[in-house]
Amino acid sequence: MTGSSLDSEITRSDKYSILLPTYNERENLPIIIWLIINYLDGSGIDYEVVIIDDGSPDGTLDVAKQLQKIYGSYRIVLRPREKKLGLGTAYIHGIKHATGNYIIIMDADLSHHPKFIPQFIEKQKSKDYDIVTGTRYVGGGGVYGWDFKRKLISRGANFITQLLLRPGVSDLTGSFRLIIQERCTTEVG
């Protein structure tokens, strides 16, 4: 993205904290971290990756510590918890430890591709949106590696939500979002 319109819109004070909650992600974590670094280093985007591991028994935290040694503690921030406490509280925990003025939440299971992060940032900057959310159900969206049952549950939950609440958002069950940090702390704090 160097030399793009994105470079001119990101200010020196903009920092993005990418929250990665993990539970038994020892195989996926090195891949998702490599992808994040591959797509963001050299882009002019200042970022950190906050890994919130919920006591994974498979050694995910050990892998995260190795990644921190490779990429540096300024880039990979570890904020583990003792046991599995749930995705929502993992995001809250990560937000409390994030140093960026923007929060990006995504899954570590490779269901969200980091190549879209610059597009999220560009979209947010275009109209100063409070939230930018990824979707599996519009345009080029989709899922990878899901079985039929998981797809059916996601589609069904989104259909019912659309029918009852009419939120005007195509994918409420996804967790790939960019949020302005001050909006998070207002809600969480």
UniProtKB/TrEMBL annotation:
Family note: Belongs to the glycosyltransferase 2 family.
Source species taxonomy: Eukaryota, Metazoa, Ecdysozoa, Arthropoda, Hexapoda
One annotated GO biological process: protein O-linked glycosylation via mannose
Pathway named in the protein's UniProt entry: Protein modification; protein glycosylation
UniProt-annotated location(s): Endoplasmic reticulum
Subunit and interaction comment: Component of the dolichol-phosphate mannose (DPM) synthase complex.
SUPFAM superfamilies: Nucleotide-diphospho-sugar transferases
Reaction it catalyzes: a di-trans,poly-cis-dolichyl phosphate + GDP-alpha-D-mannose = a di-trans,poly-cis-dolichyl beta-D-mannosyl phosphate + GDP
Name of the molecule in the record: Dolichol-phosphate mannosyltransferase subunit 1
Protein's job: Transfers mannose from GDP-mannose to dolichol monophosphate to form dolichol phosphate mannose (Dol-P-Man) which is the mannosyl donor in pathways leading to N-glycosylation, glycosyl phosphatidylinositol membrane anchoring, and O-mannosylation of proteins.
Keyword Protein biosynthesis: no
Domain of life from the UniProt record: Eukaryota
Source organism of the structure: Leptidea sinapis
Gene3D superfamilies for this protein: Spore Coat Polysaccharide Biosynthesis Protein SpsA, Chain A (3.90.550.10)
Keyword Transferase among record annotations: yes
EC id: 2.4.1.83
Domain Glycosyltransferase 2-like residues, every copy: 17-181
Record GO terms (molecular function): dolichyl-phosphate beta-D-mannosyltransferase activity
Principal location: endoplasmic reticulum
InterPro entries linked to this entry: DPM1-like (IPR039528), Glyco_trans_2-like (IPR001173), Nucleotide-diphossugar_trans (IPR029044)
